Amino acid sequence: MIFGKTLTALAAAAAIAAAAAVSVVAAAFALFAVLAPHLGAAGAAAVVAAVAAAIVGIAGLLAAFKAEERSRPPPGPDPMAFAEQAIEMVKQRPILTVGAGLAAGIIAFRNPALAAIVAKAFVDSQKPPPR
């Protein structure tokens, strides 16, 4: 069953590729037929070749730009964004912020090792990654 679906998909892809190739050849011949009476056979062939080269060049440039976009690493998290969000939260919910601060203080007082781990993780996140 899976093999049959795979063969059907491959046959459909081959049919689409063949249809695209036939349409490109037909368009090139039509352009040649339109230009041949005005430019002669050699001139019409040169124009068809130039049009094909331009299309291939544009497609290559588009592919190169897309590949360049993918190769760029995504921007890292902005450290100031976290600070700005924290300040906004303090402004909007001061009682909740005080409660969270007290809870964090109590936890740090009761378990200093956990506070050290959290502080180390925070400091390490500020360092750039090694290359």
Record the SSE blueprint.
Layout: H1 2-71, H2 79-92, H3 94-110, H4 112-126
Structural class: mainly alpha
**Percentage of helical residues?**
over 70%
Count the helices. How many? Answer: 4
Write down the domain tally.
2
- Sketch the topology as an H/E string, one letter per element: HHHH
- Strand proportion, as a percent range, falls in under 5%
Gyration radius over CA: 32 Å
pLDDT averaged over residues: 81
Question: Which blocks of ≥5 consecutive residues have pLDDT under 50?
Answer: none
Q: What spatial form do the alpha-carbon principal axes imply?
A: elongated
Distance between the termini: 48 Å
Extended strand count: 0
Largest sheet: none
Task: Jot down its keywords.
elongated, mainly alpha, 131 residues, 0% strand, 4 helices
Description:
The protein has helices at residues 2-71, 79-92, 94-110, 112-126. 89% of the residues lie in helices and 0% in strands. By secondary structure, it is mostly helical. Helix 2 (79-92) packs across helix 3 (94-110) and helix 3 packs across helix 4 (112-126). The radius of gyration is 32 Å and the shape is elongated. It is built from 4 helices and no strands. The longest helix is centred in the N-terminal third of the chain and has 70 residues, at 2-71. It has 2 domains: 1-72, no CATH class; 79-126, no CATH class. The model has no long low-confidence stretch (mean pLDDT 81).
Short characterization:
This protein is mainly α.
